[in-house]
Design goal:
Layout (H helix, E strand, L loop, with lengths): L21 H14 L3 H15 L5 E5 L5 H9 L6 E5 L7
Length: 95
């Protein structure tokens, strides 16, 4: 369960570059649900499209996977032998 997003509820003295850091990661599920209309439907549709179009023995790439919601949706819907799902994100992290 994520925390409620209150990162930008207070005034900011000066704007800098936005970064996906640990503070954002902690509240990201709440942030994206409130910021992107139909986000849950989009994630579900990604899984349905993957089920329809992904072929056995192929690779699926989720580039810019963030916390992996779309990756998980693909995984839950694709059941082919030998299909690999590769999730890549360039946000800095500890691991």
């Amino acid at each position: 369960m994520s925390d409620r997003d209150t990162l930008f509820s207070a005034p900011i003295a000066s704007l800098g570059d936005w970064t996906f850091d640990e503070r954002v990661a902690e509240v990201f599920p709440d942030m994206i649900q409130r910021s992107v209309p139909g986000y849950s439907n989009i994630i579900s549709m990604i899984g349905m499209l993957a089920e329809r179009f992904v072929q056995p023995g192929t690779q699926v790439y989720d580039l810019g996977c963030s916390l992996g919601a779309a990756t998980l949706s693909v995984r839950r819907n694709v059941h082919h032998e030998g299909c690999r799902i590769i999730a890549v994100d360039n946000s800095p992290g500890d691991g």
